[in-house]
Structures are given as C-alpha cells and as structure tokens.
Amino acid sequence: MDRLQYIENRTFDEIKIGDSAEISRTLKPEDISLFAVSSGDVNPVHLDTEYAEASRFHEVIAHGMWGGALISAVLGTELPGPGTIYLNQSLSFKKPAGIGDTITARVTVREKMEETKRIILDCECIDQEGDRIIVGEAEVIAPVQKVRRPRAVLPEIHIHERGARYRQLVEATKDIAPMRTAVIHPCDERSLRGAVEAHIQGLIEPTLVGPETKIRRSADEAGIDIATFEIVDAPHSHAAARRAVALAREGRIDALMKGALHTDEVMSAVLDPKDGLRTERRISHVFGFDAPTYPKPLLITDAAINIAPNLEEKRDIVQNAIDLARAIGIIAPKVAVLSAIETVSSKLLSTIDAAALCKMADRDQITGGVIDGPLAFDNAISPQAAEAKGISSPVAGVADILVAPDIEAGNMIAKQLSYLAGADSAGIVLGARVPIMLTSRADGVLSRLASAALARLYVHWRQEIGS
Q1: DSSP conformational letter for 236
Q2: Are residues 38 and 91 in the same domain?
Q3: Residue 68: what pLDDT?
Q4: Taking CA atoms, which of 68, 80, 313, 419 is between 20 and 30 Å from 148?
Q5: How far is CA 166 from the centre of its chain?
C-alpha cells in the first residue's frame, strides 16, 4: 500500500549494474486515442479500423512511441526514478502492439559513469507472448539525492469524439431515400445552412417555405446556393408555418423543419384543431443526447411541449420515445420513469404515475420497451448508484430513455447535460402526422443534421411497419 501512495527514487550510489525495473500495461482503445490527442499523430493505421484492416498489420496498432513512453515511465518513476534527467534514447521497433496486448517495459542498468553520474540502461518492451516489440538503450543522469514524494493522483479522463454518435445516425440513413421536408421560414444563415447540409448528406429534399425575397437575400448574404430548391412563398413566419402544415396535410412532404421562427408559431399551426396535424396520440418532444460520460445515446422526454402531463398523456409520451428509440436501432429500449425517489409514495404523484406506467406496459397499453419506475436520475443512469441503493432492475443504471415527470424537470435535465456535461443535443416532435425537427435557433449544423437523421430514421421505420 505504501508503494502505491509514494514514489521513491534510487540514487546513483544505490544503483548497481544489472539492476532492473519494469511496468506492464494492457493496450486499450482509449490509450491509442489519448496518445493521438496529445501527439497530434492521427495516422489512420492507429485510428481507422477499416483502413487498418487493409494494412500490412490487419488491425489497429498502437503508436510506436506509446511503447517508448512506457520506457520513459519506468525511468522516471522506478529506475532511477524522480530526479532523473533524460539525455538520450535510441529505439528499434520490431513488432507493433495491438489492442488487448499486455506490454511489459523493462530497463536494465548496463553501465555507470562516476564522474558525470550518467547511467546507460538497456531498454525493451515485451508482449504477452514474450516477443520483444521494442529494443534500445537510454542514457540518463541519475539523481544523487534521495527523493520520496506522494504519488500524483492522475485526473480522470473520458475519451469522447464529439459528433461521432450523430455521424453514426447519419450513416444509418445512407441507404434510405431522402425525406421531403418543409423548412419553415429559413430566413437566416443557420437554418439555411442546416437545411442545405442535410440535403448534401442525403437526409432531406427541402422545400423552403417563407418570404421568398427574404430567403433568397439571406442565402446570398451567407453565400449559400439554394438554386435547386423549391420555394413556397409565404408573407411572414405565421403564414409560413400554416403553409408548411398544409403541405403535410396534402401528403406533399414527410417532415417539418423549424427555421428562424419561434417554436410556438410552429406548434400553433401543428396543433390547430381544424387544419393542424393532430392524431389520436399526444404530441411530445424527444431530445436525443450524445453525452461524453454516457456510453450510448440517451433520449429524454418531454422537455419542450407538455407542461404537466397527466397519466394518459405520459403514456403517449413514453410510447413516442420508445418508437423513436426503435427507429434508430434500439431493439428493446430501456425506459426509466423519473421521480425524486425510487419508492412509490402517495405524497409524490410522479411515483404513482411511474408505477402505473409500468403496469400499463404489463397490460400492453405501452409496447416495444422495457419500463421501470419510479427511478431517481442517478440510479437510472449509473449502475454504481443503482447497486448502492440495492435496486434490481433491467433498466436501472442502463436506461436508453429518461421520462421526466414534467416540463420543468425535463428542461433542467436537458440544460444541465448541455452546459455541465458538454452533451450535444438533437430533437424532434412526435405524435403528429409527420415528425417535426424542432431545433433551437441557436443550434448549429451538427444538431440540425442529427435531428434530420432522427426524423429520417423515424419516417422510414413507420413506413416499414406500415404505420
């Protein structure tokens, strides 16, 4: 235990020829990613599985200097240890290290020079099969004073490739025809660029609905080419929302995409009792989050539409989210119905609703998912929290969908993920005749692309099941 807590050197006088030290590490994908980030070496043989499989090694391999860094770690922490001054290093690389290989880096003292306090060490890295993958030598100045210091506690690092999961969503649509999409009032650069990029990616065939003069002027000012797009003229944002909804009712488009207008303008047209897009199901919003610290996509509902839904409305909210999860490839999505506690209490209505939703799923009033609740946020997404509280559940700690008790809780969860956890968000509205990409006017192209991918996969899924 003491050795784990402290780091101690061996002085020049303590070191004898033939002394050796070693450390072992098992190569993980994160090690390769971290080395690439710190060094800037993005050679595809280290990072691109498809490329690496076609290379002479037929697999992703570690950077050669990852093994060199292990040798440096032995010199700096074990032999000689703290106070060592690195002078020269020569290495010969004999064999690459692949993911899962356990590499032992070993140094052995070969020569000591009394006057200069220099030491020459033979260096090698050996894999689990006993093969030498690196050989060489190092020259250092050994410390002359004893050093014993508390071992530094390294920071916890999470490897997250921003946008990777969203790119996977876009990739999943490659064999699906683009959906006909009415882009409502795209009168600024963000909404126009999002629509154009979604078109380039093969996600949508856009119809731009709004004041034609203003749309064209915005495109010209931003240098965006919209020459091939249909434009349906409407005098202002309210009229654009109504016209886009009418196009959906006429069967001319498959989805709506919000542009530079307020959400309530879009939803007012969608919810119009006579000319809107209502169905028998409650309309609700689903966020799709890519959170750096969560190992898979996370859907959150409802954080944007329903203020204080009752039990029947929550049933539809849950079903909408399950349908979206299945559309993006989650076969049996795990649904956590959230509250402040994990037990049912008559003092907290959200716990009663959660229990009722679970029973509704048992009676096939909700289908396609695995539901549990009430669950608190921590034990819905953390296996450790669930275990600590003794919760045995197929959902606890591994949820795909979080169902908030009301819009306030849902909105706060979503904003906290974005601003404290660095999560990227996309979102669509479901339950209407067509999905609605309801991104914020501040959202960038990545969020708009991800929202379009969600909508495209959902439209395709509905077509496949004949709904």
Answers
A1: S
A2: yes
A3: 95
A4: 68
A5: 8
Query: What DSSP designation does 283 have?
Result: P
| Pair 8, 109 in one domain | yes
Give yes or no: residues 431 and 331 share one domain. Answer: yes
For 255, the token pair is: 């989805």
pLDDT of residue 421: 87
My answer on whether 238 and 140 are in the same domain is no
Kindly list the averaged pLDDT for each block of 10 residues, start to end, along the chain of length 467. Answer: 76 97 95 93 92 92 95 96 96 96 97 96 97 97 94 81 81 92 94 92 95 96 94 96 96 94 94 94 95 92 95 98 96 97 94 97 97 96 94 95 97 93 91 90 76 94 84
Structural domain count of the chain: 2
Which residues are within 8 A (CB) of 268 and not within 5 positions of it... i.e. 6 or more apart? 238, 241
Specify the pairing of strand 6-8 against strand 148-150.
antiparallel
Cβ count near 349 (within 10 Å): 15
461 domain-assigned = yes
Residue-level pLDDT at 441:
60
Give the distance from CA 289 to its chain's centroid: 7
Q: Does residue 203 contact residue 170 with C-beta atoms inside 8 Å?
A: yes
Burial of 33 (0-12, 13-18, 19+ CB in 10 A): middle
**Domain end point (choices 82, 117, 150):** 150
Query: Do 137 and 171 belong to one domain?
Result: no
Domain carrying residue 276: 164-465
- Tally of CA atoms within 13 A in the half-sphere of 394 that contains its CB: 8
What Å distances lie between residue 343 and 373, 388, 402, 413, CA to CA? Answer: 8, 15, 17, 21
Q: Write the secondary structure of 34-100 as one string of H (helix), E (strand) and C (coil).
A: HHHHHHCCCCHHHHCHHHHHCCCCCCCECCHHHHHHHHHHHHHHCCCCCCCEEEEEEEEECCCCECC
> In what helix (H) or strand (E) does residue 8 lie, and over which residues does it extend?
strand 6-8
Whether the CB-CB separation of 395 and 360 falls below 8 Å is answered with no
What's the confidence (pLDDT) of residue 448?
85
Domain-located, residue 156 = no
Q: Exposed/middle/buried for 252, CB within 10 Å: 0-12, 13-18, 19+?
A: middle
Do 140 and 200 have their domain in common? Answer: no
Do 37 and 82 share a domain, yes or no? yes
Closest CA to 431 of 273, 255, 282: 282
pLDDT at position 221: 94
Residue 283's pLDDT is 97
